[in-house]
Amino acid sequence: MTDPHSPAHGDWLTTERRRLLDFASSSRVTRGGFGWLDESGIPDSERPVETWITARMTHVFSLAHLDGVPATAEIADHGVQALLGPLRDHTHGGWFTSTTDTTKGAYEHAFVVLAASSAAAAERPRARELLDEALHIVDTEFWDERAGLSVESWDRQWHSTEPYRGANSNMHMVEAMLAAGDVTGERIWHQRALRIAGTLIDEVARTHAWRLPEHFTPDWEPDPEYNRARPHDPFRPHGTTVGHWLEWARLLLHLEASLGDAAPNWLISDARNLFEAGIQHGWHADGHPGFVYTLDWQDRPQVRERMHWVTTEAILSAAALYQRTGETYYQQWYATFWDFAHTHHIDYARGSWHHELTPDGRPSRSVWSGKPDVYHAYQATLFPRLPLAPAAAMALRN
Questions:
Q1: Catalytic residue positions?
Q2: How far from chain centre, in Å, is Cα 18?
Q3: What is the pTM of this model?
Q4: What single DSSP character describes residue 101?
């Protein structure tokens, strides 16, 4: 059985990390930032440069530099420069969604904070400036102190916000806040992460039997009919998204480890419950191997394609639960998920991972085309070897 801490498995993870970096190194574009990669690792020139991809790749290459991989520092620096340059609104502040979209989303800003945190931990030039500005924008424009959650998006001039609230962007705010809190030493970011998790998981997910609603009204009432006509949406699909239950399970354990003795007991119990719900309702849900993308409100598979990011979050949640509990049950699932990734997702011929598969295991593109970035897969090959806290960049630096 695969042991996350065995030397042989560690060597394999290192090899796979380097393979992912080789694929991703071609994503730098002269327009500034990182491009959306196709199946062969070539940037798609018809797509704009997107802030979330640029931020995630900056994060990855900052981690790679901290991991001792040669020639990755300059790639991380390229990302920092892009986030301080063409993707940043130098007039009104904050970051554009892309080079062709001037709206400003919490999802993108969360990844800017994550990228800046990792680059700052790696002591890259101007990274701390980027982090300070990103945290200022999150604090003043996105954080809703009354709700203890983040609003979703704004127009360019910060005049109007979208009449929608989302769990996905808030989940990535938790991820970003944990990293920022560790890099800056400012505990307020850990405390805000706990508030977000307490509301969305220990209140909302608990009352829905761990089937986390993703979409909400501006008053934070669940909106189960949202995007019914767009079930294949890559960011806001109708129904419930099983992979996010697994991702939240992992984040709760990072949060618990970050808080130490101040951590509430519900963090570990909720993580267990989310993991179990994901296995029960999402794994082999339609009789085929792997996790379905979404379920309807009767737990029936809705979008049956298999997403690579769901598999990576299953790997990471199993690894985190095994590290936290020492229970072989989670080690067994960790091995099972890696077996699935090896057999189905990892593309040993052209590089990286197939981002989407049909239920019978063939590459498809109904939700995702190409192989946009390596963020999820890279973390799956790194995090199982790190402690649950501090955040990965600080753990590597330390």
A1: 244, 376
A2: 20
A3: 0.98
A4: B
